[in-house]
Design a protein that fits this description.
Length: 169
């Protein structure tokens, strides 16, 4: 086939490919916060692919071979951003001080989430003396009470994270 006949054929083929592609709407938006550690789903259900597939502030999180829309952990991200300029215990203390001066609503974040989702278990969270960082689990275990086993509640712990703890009655 002569080269002059291939030109229009290739142009038509290229145009057909371009028209068949979905339009690009912009960059992919990633919602703030980190996904909590989740139990694996044996059914490998894919509820989402991207954060934008989830309603409101929920993020698309991995749960074993499954993906689910889950409330992100924004408290730990906020604390890390505050302590990243100073290292060690001094940075942690500065982050805690900033958290206390920012307002009590942050310290009640798990309780606010429970009120919104209706997952509140009986009892209240124990008081934590945040002025003295405590030894123990310094990673988030939960976002709401329903993620904690048995009667345990999701509460702010001594290192600015949230953990499943025994409630106070």
């Amino acid at each position: 086939m002569p080269a002059c006949r291939l030109g229009p054929l290739l142009a038509a083929l290229l145009l057909g490919l371009l028209l068949g592609l979905p339009p690009v709407t912009g960059s992919i938006a990633v919602k703030p916060g980190e996904c909590p550690e989740l139990e694996g789903d044996a059914n490998c259900t894919k509820a989402c692919v991207l954060d934008e597939d989830c309603d409101d502030n929920l993020k698309c999180c991995q749960a074993g071979c499954a993906t689910v829309c889950q409330m992100p952990n924004v408290l730990s991200e906020w604390l890390e951003s505050r302590s990243s300029t100073h290292s060690g215990l001094f940075g942690e203390l500065l982050a805690i001080d900033a958290l206390l001066s920012w307002g009590s609503s942050v310290l009640r974040a798990p309780a606010l989430l429970q009120e919104r989702t209706g997952g509140n278990k009986p009892g209240s969270c124990p008081n934590v003396d945040i002025a003295f960082p405590q030894l123990g689990l310094c990673r988030d275990q939960c976002q709401v009470d329903s993620q904690c086993p048995d009667a345990l509640k999701c509460c702010v712990n001594g290192c600015g994270r949230v953990s499943c703890v025994t409630p106070v009655f």
